[in-house]
């Protein structure tokens, strides 16, 4: 089995895709006006319209209703990324903070209220868990 992607369901695909393109620096690949993907070397973030939900099961997903999942992105320098996103991100949850497990973390919400974590491993054990790299932004 391979974990392939996470998908966000939204009422406004273009707005959310534009947000993630700007926040990550990754260009989206559009399949239709209702579905796009931002592919990185290690994972894919898919964004789908509420119009796609009935194709799976009517009522099975609701936009802007997540309070349990955190989307996480490994970045080269979380402090520099925070500076770059200031003035763009409307809802920072917490500024860059070094957590007990050795990651420096920046939490914010996307336009639909989904929680996003940009992080950089800073402690030796955290760097090792990340594959010996500080990431790439």
**SSE order:** EHEEEHEHEEEH
Strand ordering within the main sheet: 1-4-3-2
User: How far apart are the termini?
Assistant: 27 Å
Q: What is the architecture of the largest domain at the second tier of CATH? A: Roll
Radius of gyration (CA) equals: 15 Å
CATH homology group of the largest domain: 2,3-Dihydroxybiphenyl 1,2-Dioxygenase, domain 1
> Strand-residue fraction?
35-45%
Q: Tell me, briefly, the overall form.
A: globular
CATH C-level class of the largest domain? Alpha Beta
Q: Please, what is the oligomeric state? A: single chain
Q: Kindly state the percentage of residues in helix.
A: 10-25%
Largest sheet descriptor: 4 strands, mixed
Which residue ranges are poorly predicted, with pLDDT under 50 across at least 5 consecutive positions?
A: none
Q: In the residues, how many domains can be counted?
A: 2
Averaged pLDDT, please? 95
List keywords for this structure.
four-stranded mixed sheet; 8 strands; alpha/beta; 2 domains; Signal recognition particle alu RNA binding heterodimer, srp9/1; 137 residues; 2,3-Dihydroxybiphenyl 1,2-Dioxygenase, domain 1
